[in-house]
Design goal:
about 625 residues
């Protein structure tokens, strides 16, 4: 640890204290990110507006018309209260970004970006009072007099405020999760999002850097009884924070800032780096000396409360868990049948086991040998994205916007350690910025670990992963969210809808011929879908039922056919998060139910693309709200 810290300090100093360069660099391309809903993720008067012409205008108009047509005509009293509510919601957002500048940065609102929130008791008290104040204001509205769109917007705002209040007063993660305290991402977004000229952005960063020592001092004072798992995560992510600070120092020295500003910048970077290293010292001591770490498990009561606030399903956590158990049996029966079909082709001469898990596992193991090489992992992902785009358009499955850029990149160091792949999408205030498909490279794995990961993401599953993360999954869905008429639904949407849509997209693509209906693809899809179902069983089992690591690994490896490397990473993830892993199955199950209900209601008038376009037009709203709006 000491050698690592010395190396980090030297790296930091080499950039922060470097002499000013006479050269100037081109502004870095935008990296705006929406929190995966605030994943992510109209009062859009302050967002840049692009004029639409020809076919694009017709597509946008048609999508808007579909959403409007779904709602009944509003009465005069509804319209009056709607206007009052719209005004209140905009006032709330303006006030919110003052109280939570970081939340604004994540969705592309940089008005308060120079202000670093100090995570102390006074700030928490202020945020709790803010939530109580606005809950009181919104609860005075008569929901019966609001139109459907505003009524669902109000429900989302009330849920967001109740969740904020619960997090502060009941969940109290600030006391036990040291990885919450990381200054890297907002700084990275300010530097690399072209919302203003680069010198202006650097001056914003300069002001923000002044508070970093106080930020980490408040963090240390806030942590009372941490979990060991989150303590170790925070230590592991610290080098990524140092790297961001080094990038900032280099950018400042190569800029057109004045010599005086560069000197101040260098000093504040050094002070910030010292604060980060001091925080690592503090955490390292905790990790070494603490005898009574907080257990990472949420427990039944807390889990149900968190599930209700985050998933916003019509089912409880326990009911969802029991549905997942039933779905698991259906998937295993299907996989058993497909394995029987494929056995003569791939396993001729090998005795077929009687045990279902063993038979399916042997077939999957045989097929998993077909995968890309380690060095071609990221290039193959980049190659597949245009093919997915083409398939969706040729099959007329969804309206896609070719002007919204997607870039596959290595996951930034400060974000690593939880998920291997993710999407960083711009918020609704900056919808034109790039979306990043983050993929954690395999460079730091041993040969055995890399082979295990590559077998998990084999020839077929790598395609399904790209469907999930990119097209028609997260990337396409979040583009829709950013152009929703409801800014509220784009900002404060529902993680289960976002993840559920991505899981639904996997099945929908295969239903429409992706993979040529090959049994190999359907077997691997079923394995991948079983993974989403197993996520729910694992998460509930660990946090509520007390499942231990050996039982969890058996569930993942033997019963869900995941590689050991993947299972180890999932066990790490379930220790670091709770409830989020249930969002995949919960959202998917609700969307499938809604689609089948709409088919029955509309009969021959049902059109799959119209269903998809209309469903996504409501932003990131919970599926149960979208269901109400689509009636």
């Amino acid at each position: 640890m000491m050698k690592t810290k010395i190396a980090l300090a030297v790296l930091l100093a080499s950039f922060a204290l470097a002499p000013a360069s006479p050269k100037t660099t081109k502004p870095a391309k935008g990296k705006a990110k929406a929190a995966k809903v605030v994943k992510a993720k109209t009062g859009k008067s302050k967002a840049p507006v692009r004029k639409k012409t020809g076919k694009k205008a017709a597509v946008a108009t048609a999508a808007a018309a579909t959403a409007v047509a779904a709602a009944p005509r509003a009465s005069a009293s509804e319209k009056r209260l709607d206007r009052r509510f719209d005004s209140m919601s905009m006032q709330y957002l303006t006030a919110l970004w003052r109280v939570d500048p970081e939340g604004g940065i994540y969705v592309g609102k940089f008005d308060q970006a120079a202000n670093l929130t100090i995570p102390d008791a006074a700030t928490r008290a202020k945020k709790l009072a803010f939530a109580n104040e606005w809950l009181e204001k919104f609860n005075k509205l008569d929901t019966r007099q609001l139109s459907a769109r505003q009524r669902t917007d109000l429900a989302l705002l009330v849920n967001k405020l109740e969740k904020d209040r619960w997090n502060l007063s009941t969940w109290r993660e600030y006391e036990w999760n040291p990885s919450l305290y990381n200054v890297a991402q907002p700084l990275d977004l300010i530097l690399n999002t072209e919302y203003a000229a680069k010198p202006q952005r650097l001056r914003t960063i300069l002001r923000r850097l002044a508070g970093v020592p106080d930020f980490y001092a408040a963090a240390q004072a806030s942590i009372t009884r941490p979990t060991r798992e989150h303590t170790q995560l925070a230590i592991a992510q610290a080098p990524g924070t140092i790297a961001v600070l080094a990038d900032l120092g280099k950018a400042a020295q190569e800029s057109i800032l004045t010599p005086q500003e560069k000197a101040i910048f260098a000093q504040r970077i050094a002070n910030a780096g010292t604060a980060v290293l001091g925080y690592v010292d503090f955490l390292t001591a905790l990790d070494k000396n603490t005898k009574d770490f907080r257990p990472f498990r949420a427990g039944r009561e807390m889990y149900e409360q968190k599930f209700a606030l985050e998933i916003q399903s019509s089912s409880s956590a326990e009911q969802t868990f029991r549905k997942a158990l039933a779905t698991r049996e259906e998937l295993l029966a299907r996989m058993d049948t497909i394995s029987d079909e494929l056995w003569p082709r791939y396993m001729a001469g090998v005795t077929k086991p009687r045990d279902r898990f063993q038979k399916i596992g042997m077939m999957i193991d045989k097929l998993s040998a077909r995968h890309v090489s380690r060095e071609n992992f990221l290039p193959e992902i980049r190659r597949q994205i245009p093919a997915l785009h083409k398939f969706v358009l040729e099959k007329n499955l969804l309206t896609l916007d070719a002007d919204k850029p997607l870039e596959v990149r290595e996951t930034p160091m400060y974000q690593r350690g939880v998920a291997g792949a993710s999407i960083d999408a711009p918020g609704p205030y900056r919808p034109k910025d790039k979306t990043y498909y983050n993929v954690t490279p395999l460079d730091n794995l041993t040969a055995e670990q890399a082979e295990s990961s590559l077998r998990e993401y084999n020839e077929w599953i790598l395609q399904i992963l790209n469907i999930h993360e990119a097209i028609p999954g997260h990337y396409a869905q979040l583009v829709y969210a950013n152009r929703s008429p409801s800014l509220v639904k784009s900002l404060f949407g529902n993680g289960a809808m976002v993840e559920g849509w991505a899981v639904y997209g996997e099945r929908m693509m295969l239903e429409n011929g992706y993979g040529d209906n090959a049994p190999e693809m359907w077997l691997m899809y079923s394995k991948w879908n079983l993974r989403s179902v197993t996520n729910t069983i694992l998460d509930y089992g660990v946090h509520v039922l007390g499942m231990q690591q050996p039982e969890a690994i058996d569930l993942l490896v033997r019963q869900a056919f995941q590689t050991r490397q993947e299972a180890d990473e999932k066990w790490r993830r379930v220790q670091l998060t709770s409830v989020q892993l249930t969002s995949y199955y919960s959202g998917y199950e609700q969307i499938m139910e809604l689609r089948e209900r709409r088919k029955q209601q509309l009969g021959g008038r049902f059109d799959l693309k119209e269903f998809h376009d209309q469903f996504l037009s409501y932003g990131n709203a919970p599926v149960k709200m979208i269901s109400e709006l689509m009636q």
